[in-house]
Amino acid sequence: MHSPSAQKSLPESFTDPTTRRILEAKKKMLDGESLGIYLGGRTMISIKEMVMWHRIGSANVLVTKESVRAVQEYREAQEAANSTPPENAANSEFSTDPASIEPPTLEPAILSIITTIDHDKCFVLPCNGWKGPSVGAQEFKDIKMTFQGKSPTNDVIVQDFKDALNNLKALVKEVSAGDAPMRGFLMSGTNGAPVLRFRHVVFEEVTNRPEDGSDTASDNDDSEWTLDNWPVAHPAAAEVKRSMHGKYRPNPLPAYNTKGEIIAPERCKTALPGATVRINFTLTHWLITSNKTDGKTNSSSGSGPYHIFNADIDSIRVLSDPPAQVITPRKRRTTRYDPDDVSGSPSPKKKKY
Known about the structure:
The chain has helices at residues 17-30, 44-48, 65-83, 155-173, 235-242, 268-271; strands spanning 37-38, 51-56, 59-64, 111-123, 144-150, 182-183, 186-188, 194-201, 203-205, 248-250, 255-256, 276-288, 306-320. The protein is of the alpha+beta class. It has a domain at 34-74 and 103-204 and 224-290 and 305-320: CATH 2.40.50. The strands form two sheets. Strands 1, 2, 3, 4, 5, 6, 7, 8, 11, 12 and 13 form an eleven-stranded mixed beta sheet that branches. A hairpin with a 2-residue loop joins strand 2 (51-56) and strand 3 (59-64).
């Protein structure tokens, strides 16, 4: 694997815009100028210095070691403050009032990878094509966008993808020892090549209602997507959507084009399949021991215990737009005369320029 210190500057010979965008994104991540921990170009030892699995409820969540240390230090400070006699409290460096210190929280580790979205395994419709209860989503509020990431074809990043896969395999192995199979994240593609499955929860429960009472998609003032204008394709989804007002709000896929501009929900289905992207994501693990469908993971029932890993998308940045798709020839009747022979046709067609 490569060393982050080796990524000092980009070779001037790389003049192709797509290649430069990929290399610039990689350099930014390795230099610590990005929110995510880049999984390519790093050793597993260096990654484990930054992240660890932590049990939260029934799940294991990959969190930052920095946040774990902050939580531990806070608890130790509180214990020390509580054990200090009242007469010595004024001289103590700790406060006996818990409200005087902002309690830190565990932060999920944001991982980064550069991958190409499989054109045939990309399901990012705003309504997910929901027509009624299904194995994937019994209710419309539970729909999720999903897609698979495969190895990029650009030579400058192929090895990084292999390195990232090896690091991810090592990470998931830490909480999935044994013979139980794994589902949900590390998978085999249609040709047997390894792929990664990512997901995005489309609707989130409303907890803090805005002052104007609208069902906004986020806490941002400039949010333009609400339940009213959220695209749906089927009448069943439109009907259920009306009953979700005040309870749920849409959570647009945080996907951005090469210029860093948000991709509108209705545009994702054409802008993402086949694109090479940088994905920031978090990892969560469950050990499923029963055969019943698990509501949190949306996994179907299966025999015996198995491990579920969910890679939830934090953000997507397009580095290379999808290649042009071959258009299927339009269907038409075979005529008695050559349609291109305008002069010889009984009913010549006028050419349009």
